[in-house]
Amino acid sequence: MFFRTAWLVLRKDVAIEVKSLEVLTTTLFFAIACVLIFAFAFVKNGQAPEDAAAGILWIAIAFSGTLALGRTFERERYAETLRALLLAPAPRPALYVGKLLGMLALLASAELLLVPLIAFLFQAALFSRPLLLVGILAGGTIGFCAVGTLFAAMLVRARSRDVLLPILLYPITIPVIIGGVRGTAALLASPVDEPSAIMWIGILAAFDVVFVTLSLWTFEPLMTE
Amino acid sequence: MMRIPLLLAALVLQPPPGQSEFVPVNELPPAERLQAAPFLIGAYAFVWIAVMFYLWTIWRRLDRVEADIDALARKTPPR
Amino acid sequence: MRKAFGPLLLVVAIMFVVAPFLIANAPYESTMGLIQKIFYYHVPSWFAMYLAIAVCGGASAVYLFKGTPIADAYATAGAEVAVVFGLCGLVTGPLWGRVAWGVWWQWDVRLTTALLLELIFIAYLMVRKFGGPGAEKLAAATALFGTATAPFVYKSVDIWRTVHPNTNVIPTLKPSMGGPFAFSSLAFLLLCTLLLTARVHLAKRQMTVDEMYLAYEDQS
């Protein structure tokens, strides 16, 4: 029942998104615009500073992730589908897991384009340790989306949701963003700093466990009126 | 009362331009060594002022709430 | 709680009058000298903040799962007091750092995460103020995530080698320094309790006003 519900919610979200591609295209466009702005801010004499690629990658993920979260749940609010979902006799945490997987799929597809783009634009050797890179990206994205999905779902009912989402999301997810940036920077160091990258993956995993557990635990009382 | 000018002095003392790296205090040239006392007194004074200010805001908000309660009590006759 | 306010205020006032004498008599630390005495206010400020955060987090969990209004009052009080003490820590820290390190601010893990913790609880207060109806639950969730971050902030200095001294410093203090430090910490924790009591009282009175106002609306 639990996994079936989660799967159904995920399939519903993916089906809607595949049809319109609205959130994915806007998110990608916004992410690339972010990369450009920060490239202008950091590049001097045609050369970006060493660690800039790591920072820019995660800034782009965080900013465009916020945009995607806001837009996805705005759609739910507009069609009142979230209320319908909550009225259904399904376990609430399963709904959360479904939405979380949907957001993860969305951000993962955005990263699929963003990471090669940054590697290309900044001559960053991001792919020298593909497994570690995937670990860092997964750890950071799961932590960010776990908090983001919970707060965006809650904010559907709030008055000033557009302002409150970034205000709440950024401070809480900064540890995860720091982990992502430092971990990626360790991969970009020459020679590759594997022990630090692995340490950061561990820290990211710890935060993911804490954030997902807290979210699953609080989703039910939070979404009950 | 002596503390406030010292606190202001501590706030006005800006770092010399271009200083961005960690320099242990005992390796600084004597001219750049700061007198510790204003900083120490500034820190203590800040904690005091912050706590007093916060207590004062609570007290003021409480005053306003009590006034509201009185006003409402007068408007609603006892049942 | 309200009856305890008067005696508590007296005890705290006496402790804060006595503390400077104890601190003045404590020996000078060998490398930093006089400025190290900020320690007796800086570290207890953070202890007080952790206490306030614990109150806020615990009360938020109770409010979220039980819905008791009084728990919400404690959570608000905890968050506000946490922000006040966090501010004290964030101001005394740079004043110490300016003399001991030569700079106001270092981007090291402890300083960054401490600032982050302060931001989370400021965000909590902003949600309560601007969130509109239903913001209490949203705020409670924020508080829970903030409380989950707090142990990380505390342990961060032990995980990474940073400019900031690590948590081992306190258990290994010399008794001549540990005594005044323990006294000062106790004074700050009591001060924190005092502020919490006052703020909870205010929240209770605010709840009374809301109830009376609703009753008045019903009548007219």
Written account of the structure:
The complex is a heterotrimer of chains A (225), B (79) and C (220). In chain A, 84% of the residues lie in helices and 0% in strands. With 225 residues, chain A is an all-alpha fold. Chain A has one domain (2-223). Chain A is globular. Chain A contains eight helices and no strands. Chain A starts with a helix and ends with a helix. With 79 residues, chain B is mainly alpha-helical. Chain B has a domain at 47-79. Chain B contains two helices and no strands. In chain B, α1 packs across α2 (36-75). Chain B starts with a helix and ends with a helix. With 220 residues, chain C is mostly helical. Chain C has one domain (35-153, 175-219). Chain C contains six helices and no strands. In chain C, α3 runs antiparallel to α6 (175-219). The model of chain C has no long low-confidence stretch (mean pLDDT 89). Chains in contact: A-C, B-C.
Q: How confident overall, as mean pLDDT of chain A?
A: 89
What is the ordering of alpha helices and beta strands of chain C?
Answer: HHHHHH
Give the total of domains of chain A.
1
Q: How large, in whole angstroms, is the Cα Rg of chain C?
A: 20 Å
Helix tally of chain C?
A: 6
Helix-strand makeup class of chain C: mainly alpha
**Strand share of the residues of chain C?**
under 5%
Approximate shape of chain A: globular
* Total number of distinct structural domains of chain C: 1
Write down the oligomeric state. Answer: heterotrimer
Per-chain topology:
The complex is a heterotrimer of chains A (225), B (79) and C (220).
Chain A: H1 2-20, H2 22-42, H3 52-78, H4 81-87, H5 92-121, H6 130-155, H7 161-188, H8 194-223
Helix pairs in contact in A: 1-5, 2-3, 2-5, 3-5, 3-6, 3-7, 5-6, 5-8, 6-7, 6-8, 7-8
Chain B: H1 3-12, H2 36-75
Helix pairs in contact in B: 1-2
Chain C: H1 5-25, H2 39-66, H3 69-100, H4 109-130, H5 135-159, H6 175-219
Helix pairs in contact in C: 1-6, 2-3, 2-5, 2-6, 3-4, 3-6, 4-5
Give a quick precis of the structure:
The complex is a heterotrimer of chains A (225), B (79) and C (220). Chain A has 225 residues and is mostly helical.
Main features:
heterotrimer, A: 225 residues, mainly alpha, 84% helix, globular, C: mainly alpha
